Amino acid sequence: MQRIIPALLRALTVSALCLASSLSAQTPAPAEKTYKVAIVTANRAGTVGDAELGALEDYITGKVTNLGVQVISAETMMNAVGNMEPQAQKAKLDVEMAQATSAVRLAQTLGADYLMQVTLTGFDSNKRDLNAYGVKSTTEDRVARVTYKILDGQSGASLASDTVSVTKSVQQTSESTTGLSGVVNSLLEEAAGKVATSLQRAIARGRITAPAAAASLVTIELSTEVADLYVPDVRIGPENTLSISESKFKVSALSATVEVDGIAVGTAPGKLTVKPGLSKLRVVREGFKPWERTVNFMNGQKLAVTLEMSEAAYARWKDATAFMNDLKNGAKLTDAEVKRLEGEAKMLEQSGFKVNTTDAPTIINRSIFGL
Fold this sequence. Notes:
Layout: H1 4-26, E1 35-43, H2 53-65, E2 69-72, H3 74-84, H4 90-98, H5 100-109, E3 114-132, E4 135-152, E5 158-173, H6 180-204, E6 218-236, E7 242-253, E8 256-260, E9 263-268, E10 270-274, E11 277-284, E12 291-297, E13 302-307, H7 311-320, H8 335-350, E14 353-355, E15 366-367
Parallel strand pairs: 1-2, 1-3, 6-13
Antiparallel strand pairs: 3-4, 4-5, 6-7, 6-10, 6-15, 7-14, 8-9, 8-11, 11-12
Helix pairs in contact: 2-6
């Protein structure tokens, strides 16, 4: 009996190990965590390094991709901004993207979990002259410093950051020289490797937290009125009798571009879907002064934006409404004159303006502006 028990225990142990192995084979391993990162690069090292900034982004993209990081390139982000605002110059877009608020907002638009800001912060050179055995040479130490910062894609909070420094010594003689371009690219490639190593350590230490839950979006409604601009209530009554009421209609500017935190998100008047909370709202339209406010967005919110017309735009407005100057109350119009009057009112709307007649009383005669 004493010999049977150990044998039985060994058999049970083997069976348990086999079962555990079988279950392990059937149960899939947990999926590795992936990070979707939008990358923005900037150069603060002066004139040196501007041409190589794109190379730095490529080097870093290649290095961090090996860590399981999905990268949205700066070029993709810039193209997205350019598509939203086609008339913007590239220099302006660079300035906008250098601002954390604008970059984070665009990262959210592109569905990135994180934003990675990479900055070339320093590019220095130190020279030492040597004279050994009658041969004169110059040793030049080139130093590049690169700083990176990881921001939460939803909140913009800084999760991790570091500065790396790389040095390359180049010896120059009267008979041999080393091209600057090759040295710069070698420094940037090595710096990118150090950035990737630093990022890997931050991930291993849990510094890169799980992506913040995306805030539920809210729907707001924007209306656009033109400051101090009204038109008379002109109506066509029975037998084409012209009636000019003392009441006046407000005028809206159509197709105004709406920007939230520096990113174009749609046009007004109309409804827009935005992130709740405090944001910088900007409404722009050709011929009007930009309208800017800091707004606390809430679902169902209705905002009235009053745009101030420029002098040139007002002159065009006067030309477009000149047809109303000679109208006389009580005049009887022919069918052709009525058609022409209604056509002039339609052309006014096609020029980018809308007369707000929704509050007009319901009466038998009709407004030349519709309804």
